[in-house]
Amino acid sequence: MAKEYRQPVYQPPKGSADLVLIRHGESMPAKPGESFPMKDGHGDPALHPQGERQAVAVGDRLKSTHFAAAYVTKLIRTHQTAAPLLAHLGMSATIDPDLHEVHLGDWDGGLYRIKSAQGDPAFERMRANGEWGEIPGAETTAVFHGRVEKGLRRIAAAHVDERVAVFVHGGVIAAAMAIATGCGPFAFGGAANGSISRIVITGHQMAVRGFNDIGHLEGL
After folding, report:
1. Where are the alpha helices (DSSP H) in the chain?
2. How far is the CA of 67 from the CAs of 16, 62, 72, 76, 138, in angstroms?
3. Is 108 helix (H, G, I), strand (E, B) or coil?
4. What is the tens place of the pLDDT at every residue in 140-157?
């Protein structure tokens, strides 16, 4: 019988770190004249009840996956999203100092959502230029991407040949995907709350292996 050469099933290369990036569930809505609770200058809203349901769905989806470690950011919505999965796995999470959401300057605390819905000129310039710094007092795209890459690479260096769960924010996922692919900074904006994305880091190379998987959220 002739030898057969079947199509291979992807496995991360030896020496890689497999980072599963989970966006937090939906957080509480912004309201005119009211600020979110703040944490080190960042809006820190808790999960909306829909976000809590999304967190449960994430936990159910990933509870049979082996993770060597789990990471969250300093903001409460990532802790709450991670909680169901961590309970399933009997694990605790480590706070990463660099993977919190982009600092929105004068628009932090919920005002960003209002300004974006209103089509504020600074918001439109931000989208057109791929530059967070168009928002008054906000972190620039270059600074934001620099710290996101630093955080991702630090986690990867600590988890060679391991898979880790990293609970982060929509802006962080967009930054990670842009860094890995070389696309524009907002090309991967809009990852859904509770979605699952994946990056494999091998030395200096970053490869996207999944983006915005929401199969577990159907029916919510």
Report:
1. 49-62, 76-89, 111-117, 121-129, 141-158, 170-181
2. 14, 9, 14, 21, 34
3. helix
4. 999 999 999 999 999 999
Burial readout 165-199 (b: 16 or more C-beta within 10 A, e: otherwise): bbbbbbbbbbbbbbbbeeeebbebbebbbbbbbbb
SS3 category, 209: strand
Q: Look at residue 196 and give its three-state secondary structure.
A: strand
Could you state, in order of their start, the residue ranges of all structural domains in the chain?
16-104+140-217
Q: Is the dihedral of CA 84, 87, 88, 94 positive or negative?
A: positive
pTM of the model: 0.96
Banded pLDDT at 1 (limits 50, 70, 90): confident
**CA 102, CA 137: separation in Å to the nearest integer?**
12
Count of beta carbons in the 10 Å neighbourhood of residue 13: 12
* Fold type of domain 16-104+140-217: Rossmann fold (3.40.50)
Indicate the SS3 state at residue 55: helix
CA-to-CA distance for 72 and 77, rounded, in angstroms? Answer: 9
Distance CA 81, CA 194 (A): 8
Beta-carbon contacts of 52 under 8 Å, excluding residues fewer than 6 positions away, are: 25, 80
Q: Find, among 166, 172, 18, the residue nearest to 86 by Cα.
A: 166
Strands 38-39 and 42-43: antiparallel
User: Quick one: DSSP state of residue 131?
Assistant: -
Token pair, residue 145, equals 């991407």
DSSP code of residue 26: P
